[in-house]
Amino acid sequence: MIEINNIQKTFEDKTVLHGISAVFEKGKTNMIIGASGTGKSVLLKTIVGLIEPDEGEVLYNGRNFYDANRDEQKKIRREIGMLFQGSALFDSLSVEKNVMFPLDMLSRMSKSEKEDRVQFCLKRVGLAGSEKKMPSEISGGMKKRVGIARAIVMKSQYLFCDEPNSGLDPNTAIIIDNLIQEITKEYDLTTVIVSHDMNSMMEIGEYILFMHEGKKVWEGSNDDVTDAESPILQKFIFSNKLMRKYKQ
Amino acid sequence: MKSLGKYMIFLGKLISNREPFRVYLKLFFDECILIGINSLTIVVLVSVFIGAVMCLQTAFNLVSPIIPRYVISQVVRDIALLEVAPTFTAIVFAGKVGSNIAGGLGTMKITEQVDALEVMGINSASYLVLPKVLAGMFMYPILVTIAGFLAITGGYIAGVVSGVVTPEEYIYGIRADFMEFSVSFALLKAFVFSFLITSISAYKGYYTEGGALEVGASSTKAVTNSCIAVLVADFFIAQFLV
């Protein structure tokens, strides 16, 4: 479980996060949604420790990340897997080496153990047989799968996904969403996904935190998001024709 | 001053909270190839031709009959060792290696590869930059040694082929009044310049924000700032050690 309390962040004179609190439960796909520029990615980066908040705390199973010393922070970070918006695969490494990278850097496994683990993860995300390909040779959807494989290879407890289906066609996007949800259930992960994709939200949003201008406006699940009373959320959800038709 | 302070903090990040030694070893050798071996062609070309041109220009300007012709090779030798090999090559090195380092790191930064390392708990600055700086400081003195030798050789070939100096006069000239300190001086410059070029370029690349345009701008700034730093350092080293 991840708990964030009163997270505030200001860049120069612009406050991006206004005291956001939430609880992201284990075994659930938790989503942070909102329009572009509302601070979703900043919040995610604050939770994973890439941007230090001005105020507030981030608790990983009760361990305060920003109060922890460097070694403890390192320990927490090694329990984190992250899928980036552009996948962030290392260009110079093959698919196999990309997935093996955290094991090479952070584990004391033998070579054969590492190879077995990489094979297992690649098979799990449906990429067996693509080990030797370079990131430039694979599609956007495959890159996301490699990113997921790299995120779970260390048997992470926490999975963070920044816009996991950006740049993907609707069908591939749903496949990636479902893969994330399956992995969350299978390994009992605490998953936090940042997205502005309505399909994703309706498909896998078990807990939804809606942000607007750096503030938490609404929280709930995908079962009751369409009935939410917040006019800002209503406007956001029903901004496209498909969703308006769905409402009717 | 703010940039200088940020650069100093960046240098501190390279050596604090490092990864285990074994991690850097392979990266170091990879960088030695990228930084050193891959720069060999341009260094060879530049040194030979600059040496040749220096010889011909010196001969053209030494018109007095009382100045012996072996002075031509003395001039070529001293300029080659003191300036062409360490400083002129540094400018070429900054253009090739500096832009490559800044462009590579800048691309990694904007595509979130640096963030990916940080999320894993890896000191990205140290992991990505320290091997480059160490490889640069290891390989550049070797390149400078080669450049010095080839500049003198270029001068020999041009001088002998064009007939401005005989082989005996040239060899005599490069041996006459030779100061061993020139070699130490060139190598000292090589260490300082390689550190400046690799670290400044890495700093510019590491702090790239934005997109492809900014990566290009970082590469340009890396080369210009490295060149300025090399020239300023060259002045101070000459001031204090000559």
How does this model look, in words?
Chain A is α/β, with parallel strands linked by helices and 248 residues long. Chain A has two domains: 2-79 and 157-247, Rossmann fold (3-Layer(aba) Sandwich); 89-155, no CATH class. Chain A is 38% helix and 25% strand. Chain A contains nine helices and ten strands. In chain A, the strands form two sheets. In chain A, strands 6-7-8-3-9-10 form a six-stranded mixed β-sheet, with helices on both faces. In chain A, strands 2-1-4-5 form a four-stranded antiparallel β-sheet, covered by helices on one side. The radius of gyration of chain A is 18 Å and the shape is globular. The model of chain A has no long low-confidence stretch (mean pLDDT 91). With 242 residues, chain B is mainly α. Chain B has one domain (25-241). Helices cover 84% and strands 0% of the residues of chain B. Chain B has helices spanning 2-15, 21-36, 40-61, 70-110, 113-119, 124-162, 167-175, 181-206, 212-241. The two termini of chain B are 29 Å apart. The model of chain B has no long low-confidence stretch (mean pLDDT 92). Chains A and B meet through α2 and α3 of A and α5 of B.
